[in-house]
Structure formats: C-alpha cells, structure tokens
Amino acid sequence: MTSVVLCYAILAGGSLSKSDMPLLIFLGIFVALIIIMAVIQSIIKDNNKKKRLNLTLDFEKKNTDFNLSDKIGDDRCVVYFDKAHESALIASITTEGVVNYSVDGFSKDVVAFSTGDFCAIDATQRKALLIKDHAKYRNFEVVDYTEKDLNQEIVSSNTFTPILEVFRMPIDIDVFATLFVLVEESYGYITLFTTYYYDSFNYVAKDSIPFKNKSSVIIKAIGAYIFVIDDFFKILTIIFPNRSNMIVSYNDIISVSYEEDGNILFSKSTGRTVGGAIVGGALLGGAGAVVGGLSGNTSQNKKVQNMSIKILVRNTKNPTIVLKINLKDEKFNTKDSASKINYDTRLEWANQIKDLISVLIDNSNQHTNDKYFKSEVNKEIVDSKKEMSIADELAKLAKLKETGVINNEEFNTLKSKLLDS
To answer: Which of 110-124, 165-179, 278-292, 403-417 has the highest mean pLDDT?
Structure first.
C-alpha cells in the first residue's frame, strides 16, 4: 500500500504542496527500510544455508566408516542408507552443528522426501522409516504398517518394487500437508503416511494377487484427491482429503458428471456423452469459459457456491461418489479477478478428474470382444481380463475342494484345463 501511495505521489509530482513533502519523505524512507530489511534477511538466509552445507560436508568427511553415497535430503536434514550394513544414518543440521541418529536393521528399497518429511520403505521387512520436521528433537520412527494386510500370508516374496509417491495435499484453503502414498502390488495393499498417522488397506482380494505378472499402477494427485489406478485389475482407488478411501472396479462405473450449484454441465455415461447441447464428446470449457456449451457467452460472469464431480457406480449401498471441488465451501464470483483465478484453478481440477474417469469408462466399455483389439496394448488388457476370470474360477475350484465336493485328483485335472485354456 505504501509503495502504491508513493508511486501516486511521484506521478503527481508538481501538484504536491510543500506541506505534503514531509509525508512523501517519510513514505520514501519507510519503503527503503522495507527493501533494506528484505535484502538483509535474504543475505542472512543464504549465509545460514551455506553454513549448514559446509557443516554437512564436514560431517560426511568424518564418518568414513559409513557408506554415505546413497542419500536424500537438503541443507537441513540428510538421510544416508548403507545397504551392505542394513542401516540408515539421519543427520539433522542447524547452524549450530549436526546431530545424527543411527537406525540399525533397516535396508532401504524406495524413499521419498518433501519439505523436511521423509519416508523410506524396507520392502523385505515391510517397515517404514518416517522422519518429520528435519528430524528435529529425534522426530522419527520405524513402523510396521502391515497389521491390516489380509494378503501377506499368501505371497512368498516381493515380486514388484513398491511404488512410493509424495504429495503436498490441500487440507484447507491455503493449508497443505505432506502425504506419502505407498502401493505394494505384490500384496494389493495401499498405505498412507501423513505427518500425524498412517493407515493401510487392501484393494485387491487375495485370490487374484498371484496372477498379476506385471506392474500396472499409476498414482495421480488432482486437487485434494489421490487416484490410484491399477490397469491390470481395472480397479480405481480414490483417496479423499480426510484420508478415507473408495475402491471401485472400472466395470462398475456407470457415469461421471460435473455440476455447479446443482446444474449438470457435463455428463458421460457408459453409453453417451452430454454437455449442454453437445452430444458425443463434450468437454468443460477452458479457464473462465462457459462450461459444456450451455451458453454462447464465453465471457460469462457468474457466482458459484458448489462445484462437484459425481460418479455413479453399481453399488446399491453407496451408488454415488461425490468429489467436492471447492474446498471448505469456497464461493466464487468471476467478476472479481482474484476469485476468478481460484475458480479457474478448481475448474481445471474438475476437468482433469472428469477426463480421468471418462478414460476409465472407455477402457471398461472397449474390451467386450477380443477380435476387435489387435494392438499390443489392447492385447495385454484382454489378457489381464482373461487372467482375472481364471483366478476367479480357480478360487471356486479351491472352495469346492475344501468342502469335499471334488477330490484332489479332480481339482488338479480341472485346474490344468483352466490354465491351458
């Protein structure tokens, strides 16, 4: 504000009276002091960073008995992993010096880091090393996150390398938290690690796990939501801002729609796509544009209180999945430039989510007849569906054997026929 006043005063120039000069001088001095303080703070910050980096180098020179080549971190905290000795070394760095902690019996397979928070996974022991706030005040722990895994007993080894991603997720307006998402395909198991707690769940039944022969998971963050997509099993897991989750098969998705204040501006179902008067491929408009062709006025000003994506699924108990796009009931008035920027950001989130769900609907719809799919990509998808059906049949045979309906010889004969088909 002071700089604006100063600029106006300078532009006014000759119109200033002598009585205005003291105010102008005061404003000039005030702005100059702010600039000087900002420069000083920047210099101090840079010097402190250099000091911490030098302390880190000295620390590494002194610790020659530990393999420090495998490391991750920044000038405030570095974590070293020595696989040969199955140990980790945590160095918490301040301008006063380096405090280090050793973690024995831990061998890192994957690791991720964001703004002072770390997560490393030992895939063999299925343990996580969690470090918070640059490990200040010994702020770290090793946790066994497998207590909820219903599939761990049927898998003898980790066939697939775990997938670990880190996200800075909005939990409120302008408030973000670090979220680590771990997907273990060998167990059909997802674990969420946050600054405060962790939670885990299975997304695939144990009878299907042994038939997976390739890695097929993609993790996407859109707005406040995480989407874990497993194209082999054709399963979508949606993780909500409160860290609850919804698991749905592609085949169970009936439709996806985008709504503003209860008005449907885009809809795609297993049979058709509708957006206003457009049928067969409507898209949401670009930033600030009218959505779905509902109006010819592409510079429409509007007030919006509720933006949501709705996914209709084949589930009588919970038939509708609602993804709220405007967090904490934000209200938008596109006449206001700042509000319009926020609205455009939320609209882009909605675009990305509806595009993703639309692709999954198409993916589900396409693969009804093998003869239409000649490419390698489509062949893999068809093969995965076949493997899933075989897994289901084998599970049924195993149950018949357990209940005594068929004997061991009959089970082996039927199993061989299924695997050879």
So the answer is: 110-124
